[in-house]
Amino acid sequence: PQHVVLYPMVSKSLRNIAAGKDPLEGQRHCCGIAQLHEHHSLGYEDLDELQKNPQPLIFDIEVLKVEEPGSYQQDPWAMTDEEKLQAVPLIHKEGNELYRQGKVPEAASKYYDAIACLKNLQMKEQPGSPDWIELDQKITPLLLNYCQCKLQCQEYYEVLDHCSSILNKYEDNVKAYFKRGKAHAAVWNVAEAQADFSKVLALDPSLRPVVAKELRSLEARLREKDKEDKVRFKGIFSQ
């Protein structure tokens, strides 16, 4: 048992990796014993129990796949800082190519990996410092690409969250207003959508034809919804 007392923290990291997260998410820079005292719960009942009562462990290892030599690509969490910086443009390019091919979920995954690399580096910088800002400015276009994918996957609330986070820092980001406007329109936040599209026009009047098209689409959907609601409520009140 004394040899596996830190395994719950290791297992939590492995589970983060399986979920596509940074394995050090939620941890701070300190030794393993300090981590045990810092976290009253690891987020998993079985790991909490093992942390309280360490037990000898037996592992069954299953081979899931065999990759060709040279085909393995490191996950972002396994890269050094320098490797992450070098990988971001390549991952970005792969995401763009997948998007052009119509492989939108796969493209979103690539953009997410590139963002994760930069976020990991940004965590090591003082918020608001020149290096932090430089990394943030690299994250923003990737995050907008990610939001475009999520729009097409109809995951509108994620788009709302990410675009709002961008606009909290960069109030003049036209693309963030436009994508957030489309997401608001999709979930029937009419006033919010109109406000975002108005902001787009104020920042870039050349986009008037594109915004007008979105507003016409929203108005048409509202009329259709109104007709459907009248039919639905008429059936209810006639019973």
Automatic annotation (TrEMBL):
Top-level taxon in the UniProt lineage: Eukaryota
Protein name listed in UniProt: AH receptor-interacting protein
Spans of repeat TPR: 174-207
Organism: Crypturellus undulatus
InterPro entries for this protein: AIP/AIPL1/TTC9 (IPR039663), PPIase_AIP (IPR056277), PPIase_dom_sf (IPR046357), TPR-like_helical_dom_sf (IPR011990), TPR_rpt (IPR019734)
Record's keyword terms, sorted: Cytoplasm, Phosphoprotein, Repeat, TPR repeat
Cellular localisation: Cytoplasm
AIP/AIPL N-terminal FKBP-type PPIase domain segment(s): 1-63
Function: May play a positive role in AHR-mediated (aromatic hydrocarbon receptor) signaling, possibly by influencing its receptivity for ligand and/or its nuclear targeting.
